[in-house]
Specification:
Length: 205
């Protein structure tokens, strides 16, 4: 795409600029050719869930088994399903969402019967997460904190320090964390995408 003689990169769609790898495409074609076109168990076939559990351990240091894995028909549905399960409609339970953030989080929380609460991060500080920002948004009604790293739309990657803040904050306030890590393998310049899931809690105050 060009405009006024300059290249324009569209960031409107949250997808990479490369095709699905041949290995995945060929596996799908082979499965269809072999007749794997019928209903499966609703949580996902066991070999797939075992592979996901192994990948989470090897790539992210997250210890789990196939019994902890639930497949869904897309990321947005998985997030809605999770929030809908964790929120009790009509009780005014709040869900903290880091801003800037993906546009669908707040509507998903509202549709699930919760109250979305923004955690405002500062552009001048490169959207760095601080305990102060988290503490400003929490209340006795807070049930869940949604985080998304690498982040859509900022592209920020969660640092080890920020992941520690989040893990400690969640434990201290007895909160659940929904960590959307859909872009975890799309990182550049030697950056590493940190997940708060395998981190030990560093301090309880």
């Amino acid at each position: 795409m060009r405009a006024a003689g300059k290249h324009v990169i569209t960031l409107a769609a949250g997808e990479p600029d490369f095709d699905t790898p041949d290995r995945a495409r060929n596996a799908g074609i082979r499965a269809i050719s072999e007749g794997h076109t019928h209903y499966t168990e609703s949580r996902g076939i066991r070999p797939l869930r075992e592979s996901v559990a192994q990948m989470l351990w090897e790539d992210r240091g997250i210890a789990c088994s196939a019994e902890n894995i639930l497949m869904a028909p897309g990321g947005k549905y998985a997030i809605y399903e999770t929030v809908r399960t964790l929120i009790n409609p009509g009780e005014g339970q709040e869900v903290m969402i880091l801003n800037p953030g993906w546009v669908s989080y707040a509507p998903i929380v509202s549709a699930a019967g919760g109250v979305p609460v923004g955690v405002e991060l500062d552009f001048e500080e490169n959207y760095h997460i601080t305990r102060e920002a988290l503490e400003k948004a929490v209340s006795p009604r807070t049930r869940l904190l949604i985080i998304n790293y690498p982040n859509n739309p900022t592209g920020c990657v969660l640092s080890l320090e920020e992941a520690g803040y989040i893990a400690d904050f969640a434990v201290e306030h007895d909160l659940l964390i929904l960590s959307d890590e859909v872009y975890s393998t799309i990182v550049y310049d030697g950056a590493e995408s940190i997940s708060p899931c395998p981190l030990p809690v560093r301090r309880i105050v």
